[in-house]
Structures are given as structure tokens and as C-alpha cells.
Amino acid sequence: MRVVNDSEGNPLAVGDEGNGRGLVIWLTGLSGAGKSTIAQALIAQLRARGRRNVELLDGDAVRTNLSKGLGFSKEDRDTNIMRIGFVCELLSRNGVIAIAAAISPYREVRDRLRLRIPDFVEVHVSAPIATLVDRDVKGLYKKALAGEIDHFTGISDPYEEPLAAEVVLQTGGETVERSVGKLLRALELLGYIPARASAISAEEEDRVVEQLRLSGRAQETIALPHPAPPENHAKSPSGLIPAHGGELITRVLGGRERDSAIDDLERYPSLEISPRQWADLELIATGAYSPLRGFMNEREYRSVITDGRLANGLAWTIPILLLVDGDAAAEAKQSERVVLRDRDGRNLAFLHVEDMYRIDREVLAQKVWGTTDANHPGVALLQEEGTIALAGPIEAIRLETSSLFPGYRQTPAETREVFRDRGWRTVAAFQTRNPVHRAHEYIQKVALELVDGLLLHPLVGYTKKDDVPAEVRMECYDVLLNNYYPKERVLLSVLPAAMRYAGPKEAIHHAIIRQNYGCTHFIVGRDHAGVGSYYGTYDAQRIFDEYTREELAITPLRFENSFHCTKCESMASEKTCPHGPEHRVLLSGTAVRERLRSRAEIPREFSRPEVVRVLQHHYAMEQSPEAA
Ligand SMILES: [Zn+2]
């Protein structure tokens, strides 16, 4: 190895050792903001540090070579960017640092590239318009401002700023050296280049770190702690666990406020929302989604999909969005408030429209469900929604809960009241969308050996067609609790939420909701909220390791699949039983359904006879409704 010194006298390794990881550095910003200048200075610095394999794709050069003939319509601009991105991707895959300097005005296409390219660093090169006008020797900005140039980005054409770029450089107020210094520091923190003695001030370092956090990549950086989220672990006065974020939110109007809201209804445009959207709204209104007060704005949305956290650092994995189509968005645009209603007009709420943005379904699907496969039931549902998100706080005016399960529809405030009355300090929640057989009964009872109470919390919103309907499941739970559980230690209540089948991300989501209902522990089995073979068996348990107690206060209780073992003569699991699978009483879901339909025997070691009778009746009805 040949050792040479760089311009500042630091020893450098030259040769293969100088070729580190490939990546794409994407400089976006208005014309004249300094993208090319910074790119050139960055290349010089990287070369001085021994990185020989650096390549620049400059917007202007690309237009004359790679994209000749393309114009300045949105379509042509997007094509140009996708071409640059494609070349950058090829280069970075081969260990090259590919730097693109292109205006790239549209957020959606930049986000597409981010999704495609594993190592992508977006740099927003920003300067005030006044500075750009001053710098512009050709006088193009003045002409554009005078209306003489069409499609001039930032003046007569839109420029959509990045919302969560890894690096933001304010070139109006700092030298090229400082800008490049900050950019290099971000690359060091992300582990792309070896760290050096810092060339930037402590204040600048703070800003670089803060921006990386906003971009959702703090996780990858070397020793960057998350900001301390709001007091999430403090003891609440009642002795119960506090809501997520510390305060149980209610967004339901009462009394005079409600009366005057009803008088106001006519003044605002109204929008019918689907039962699944209403389910989210109800969960916001009752505080099950604390600390949310409404549907997520773009910043919150980005933070959730990239970082698995709200912008304040609290755990949150499922974006809560009100997705509508273009017509509805156009109507909402005309008013600062929209009345949301269900199909029958029984449920009403105000949405205070504070943000409106377009989402990319593929990005959303990939980030939350880990797949864009349309056969995934959660991803399939996305296709039924619009692509424009309306965001802002909501206020429920009328919340008429369904006539189904009237005695079992407690809000978080109400379940907390029950826990308080019964003196429960520790409560384990059990999420289910299935009938409870012996295996789950066993898990619940093992948990109940350790905590004061059990919240059996079946989800009764949307589920897949082949899941057992909620009414039938409720009957199963009733007979089971009446015959086999100590009544005073169990609360059966329904969760009016829709299933998303998002596996690990939904496990965290379900846990957060249960904390808001007052639970201290959350039972997580294998493949929680999973479907098909999209998620690994233990993914939904492992994801809890990614969060600190400050970020998520509820404690997961991780369980193995359990079964009746004929040798042990009891319920057991891999953790407690040494005997082979031939001694286990196990039936697949399909086998259970077949036996129920044909009224074949289901062993009592697998399911309680009372539960089997309810299910047999359901399947008989399903086959011939008139016979039953
Ligand atoms: Zn055994």
C-alpha cells in the first residue's frame, strides 16, 4: 500500500483501499442555488480523502447527452430524473459515489429514486429567491418573474422542497467550504466515509445531526441518540399507565360546543368517508390513537414511514391517513373545514384542513407492508383509496356507535375506569381476530398468572372475508369466559378497528392502542397480524427491540405457539415440553374449518366443546341458512 498525504498533510491510503461503499448523493434545488459548485467542491474533497471513484451527473450535461429532446413538462422532467437516477444506481452498485446535480423539482420522483436506490442521500441546496436573482448574470429569474419564460422552476413552475432530506445547505448565508464541510460530516455520520477530526463548529454539527434525525436516518448513524420524547413513562396520578405520549386525548365535542358545531354544519362542504376511515376517526376521537389529534400531515407521515416514530420521537408505525380522490380534495381545498360523515349520516365530525399532499402508494406499501404485491390483503385495500391525504385535527360532533355489541364498546377512558375500579395496576391485553381455542386460552392464563387483569380485546372492524365474523366470535368469547375464566379478572371489550395485516408494524400499532386503553402488557404471539408468508415468524416480536421504554412504555409478552401434549397431559409449548410433535394435539386452520363444516369431532384438548358448538352452528348457517 502506497501512503501519501492529502492537501492538509493527513496520511491517505490510495488504491483499492480508497474505494469504499458506493452511494448516490442527490443535490436538488433551484437554478443558481449552487448545486454544481457544491458538487465540484465535494468531488475535490472526496478525492483529497482518497476516494477516486466519484462521478458527477450534472443536469445540464445530462440534458445534452442522456436526455436530448426532452422538454420541460412534468412528464419530461420526471423522465430526465429517472434516467439520471438509473445511471446513478448502476454506478453506486459498483462502489462509485455518484453525485447528481439536477433541479429535480418533483418530490414524488425523488422519493421513487430513494425507494429504488439502497444508499441514497438527498441534499437540498437552498437559497432565498432574492439571492438567486442577484446571482443570476443571465437575468433569467427577472425574465421569469416578468412572465417572459414559461416552465421556469420556482417562478412559473413548481418546486417541491424535500420534507426530509438528509442534508439541507443554506447557500445564501454560508460559504461553499462550510456547505461542503456539513455535507461531508453527514456522510461521515452515515458511515459512508471514514470520520475525520471535525471541520465544522459544534453549532453546525447540531444542525447536521438534527437534519439527519428529521430524515429518519438517525438509526443508521454512529452513536446518535434519539431526542428524549415527552414524559411517556411518568406515573399517572391514578396509578394506571399513562396514555402514549403522556395524555389521553379526546376529540369529541360536548355541550354548547357541540350545539354550535351542529348549527355550523351547513356552512362547510361535506365528505362521505368509508367505514374503514371512520374506524380510524373514531379511534382518534376516543383517544385510542393518543397522542394523535387528527389525520397525519406530510411531515408526520414521512417520519412514521421512514423512522417508525412520530416527529417527536414516540413510537408509531402505521400512518393514519385520510386518503381521498382528486374531486374530494378539490372540494376540501375551498374550505378550512370539512364535515366528515358516514354513509348514513349517523356519524359526523369536523376536519380542520391544515395540510393536503399526494402520497405514492408503492412507497407507502413498501414501507409499511414490506411489499407492493397486490395479493397482500392490506396492500389490496390501498388500491381502493385515493392518493391525496387530507390532514389536520378532527372534532367528532356525533359518535353513534354501531348497534353491534352495545355492552362491549368501551372507550379508553371507560376501560381505564373499569381497571381503576377493580384495582388493577397491571393489565395484559390480548388482541384477536379469531375464535379463542385452547392454545390462546392457555397463553392468556399464563399472562393472568403474572398480572392483575386481562383485557380480551377482539378487533371488530374490517377483517378478511375468510376470517370468522365478529358476531360469531363474540358468542365464542362469551361462552368461553362464562365457563372457564374468573369473571372479575377479565374484561371483554371490542376494538372498533380495521385489520391492516401489516405484521410487525401492526404489532407495534396494536400495542400502542392497548397502552391507551390502559394496559401495561401486550401479548405478542408468533406472526402477529401477519398473513400468508410475508413476514418472518418472530418479526412481530423482534420489532419491539427497536424501541426504548421512553419511546414505547407498554411491555410486550412474547409467546410461542402452544398445544396440548398427551405425554405432559397438559397445555405446553416448545419452551416447556420435551416431547415430539407426534404427542401434540394440533389442527391447522383449514382442518378446523373442514371439521366444523362436516360436524366431525374436534378434540376437547384443542377447543372447548362450548366454543365448538357455536362455530358448528355458524358453519351450518353458512352452508344452508334456511336449515338453521
Ligand atoms: Zn409434552
Features:
single chain, 628 residues, alpha/beta, Rossmann fold, Sulfate adenylyltransferase, 3 domains, 7-stranded mixed β-sheet, 5-stranded parallel β-sheet, 21 helices, 36% helix, globular, disordered N terminus, binds zinc ion
Topology, please?
Blueprint: E1 2-5, E2 11-14, E3 23-28, H1 35-48, E4 54-58, H2 59-65, H3 74-93, E5 97-101, H4 107-116, E6 120-126, H5 129-135, H6 140-145, E7 167-170, H7 176-189, H8 202-214, H9 255-264, E8 270-272, H10 275-286, E9 294-295, H11 298-307, E10 322-324, H12 326-333, E11 337-341, E12 348-352, E13 355-358, H13 361-369, H14 377-382, E14 388-398, H15 412-422, E15 427-432, H16 438-448, E16 453-458, H17 470-484, E17 490-492, H18 503-516, E18 521-524, H19 539-542, E19 555-558, E20 562-565, E21 570-573, E22 584-585, H20 589-597, H21 609-623
Parallel strand pairs: 3-5, 3-6, 4-5, 6-7, 8-11, 15-16, 15-18, 16-17, 18-19
Antiparallel strand pairs: 1-2, 9-14, 10-14, 11-12, 12-14, 13-14, 20-21, 20-22
Helix pairs in contact: 1-7, 3-4, 7-8, 17-21
The protein binds zinc ion.
SS-based class: alpha/beta
The H-level CATH homologous superfamily of the largest domain, spelled out, is HUPs
Kindly estimate the percentage of residues that lie in beta strands according to DSSP: 15-25%
Query: How far apart are the termini?
Result: 85 Å
List the ligand species: zinc ion
Which spans have pLDDT < 50 for at least 5 consecutive residues? 1-18, 224-228
